[in-house]
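User: Fold this; tokens only.

Assistant: Input:
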Amino acid sequence: MNMTHYMELLAVNQPWNLILFMAIPIALAETIAITELAILFTRRFDGMIRKVNKICSILAGVYFLGIFIYLFVNAVILFTLNGEWRGWIDIIAVGFYLMGVLPLLGLSLIDLGIVHSRAKMERGAKIEISFHFRWYIFSNSPYCHDFWNARPIDWRQPFPSYAYVKVKEGVPKMIAFGPPSPHF
């Protein structure tokens, strides 16, 4: 079955990859969203709900930064160097998933007091909601792109109108349709 590298990552090594790369980040993000809304609606900027929100925000940012570094080094760089991308859909799916580090790290930096430390509590909560909304866009985009089959949209697919002749020592050895294959 043709799928993007992101879906393949979730499909192999079941259930561990699914838990590590999807369930934990989503559970932390959902906890942040629910507690952030509770804080905004109740206007209680202290207490247990705020503590849970702060802990989950910091954990989510640090955890997803670890995922980003791991996948960037072990997947993105290798796929790029070896030409293993499965088309532009694959690049978009993996890229959007990895861009999820930006809003989650932003949430961590806010709760650690490094960014927006002087913002009033209500304004800070609204900023956190905006970061959370961005994370939802980045994290759900790979799933939307995985509904498309990556191969038919792949730029490396052979087209019958092109003919490629491999010439070895002045004599044609093989005729193939499409771009040159590295396996000739």
